[in-house]
Amino acid sequence: MSGPGPSPGPGPLSVPPATVVDMAGVWRSGGVRWGEDGPGLVWVGERGERRGSRIAFGGEVGFRVVGERRCVGARGNPCPGDVVVARGSAQARCGECARLDRVHSVAADGVPDDPRVYRVYLAWFGPGLVKVGITAEEREGARLREQGAVCFSWLGRGPLMAARRCEELLRAALGVPDRVSYEQKRVIRASLPGPGERGDEIRDMHARAVGLGGWPESLEAVACRVVDHGRLFGLDGLVPAHGVVRELVPDGVVGGRVLAAAGPDLHLETAGRVVVLDTRLMSGWGLGAAPAGGGITVPVRALRPPDVQDQLF
User: How much helix, strand and coil, in percent to the nearest 5, is found in the chain?
Assistant: First the structure.
């Protein structure tokens, strides 16, 4: 199998195996990137060059893990120490690079004077799983696809700190969280109601939110319009997952047929079972070609509610 193909484009997506070692050296995963038309895997070369592999439901992926997992650096800069990092972490950064990345993070309020316009959103991941969040207006709906939001609606727009105050207002007055764990999302993803019902909780929460007193004066309310990602994620007819990849290991293999993708997760059918691969676990590793029929030889744990202890199989 050759190296990564051209960057994802519009239209139906096809999957070359998620690979690759070629004559230019080892490529490392940059994770999933979501466009309006679907997901693609990003690859980073030894000199920082970037390419993409397209993902399609029903297509196959297969890769072999090469070498050790190393820090991916921060803010586009390589890790000075090329540090070996933990295998099972969602973020492949050493302590120092993680700190540098966090300093400039909007999520950590590291840039309170950011002049951009921000949007407040309500995101739905399943019955009873509605969260509030913010994203830069220029990113449009990318943040919601990255989180695996099954559907969402905008709630307001304005300066960063006004959007933050709106978040806090909804948490305090309506009990709306600003986080939903990936384990909760995975457990419920294959048993969702149909598109007609999915937006009901968002519409109800939107109406309650705009009726609250104490909205920041500089935040403009946005009318409720539910955007549904069910078809984009391939969720129709999705069967429950048996397990989740716990970590990648040197010389381990991951191969299977792609059933669905939501946020960083790929749902793979392999050897008669469905396993979820969090593609964030791929970052920092060198990855080489392997047949999609090679199954999964890396550690897998049972999919369970967040408060149940891990089980291995």
Answer: 20, 30, 45
Q: What is the percentage of the chain residues whose pLDDT exceeds 90?
A: 61
* Closest residue by Cα to residue 16 from 26, 8, 25: 8
pLDDT above 50 for 94: yes
- Provide the greatest CA pair distance for the chain: 62
Q: Which residue has the tokens 């009318």?
A: 223
Token digits of residue 226: 């539910």
Distance of alpha carbon 57 from alpha carbon 7, whole angstroms: 17
Instruction: For residue 59, give the nearest of 82, 34, 41, 79 by alpha carbon.
Output: 41
pLDDT at 43: 80
Tokens 């006004």 belong to residue: 162
In contact, 53 and 292? CB cutoff 8 Å: no
For residue 269, what are its two tokens? 């059918």
Residue with tokens 């070692």: 21
pLDDT above 50 for 18:
no
Which of 107-111, 190-194, 204-208, 218-222 is predicted least confidently? 107-111
∠ CA 91-50-66, rounded to 5°:
55
Strand partners, 54: 40
Tokens 């690859």 identify what position? Answer: 43
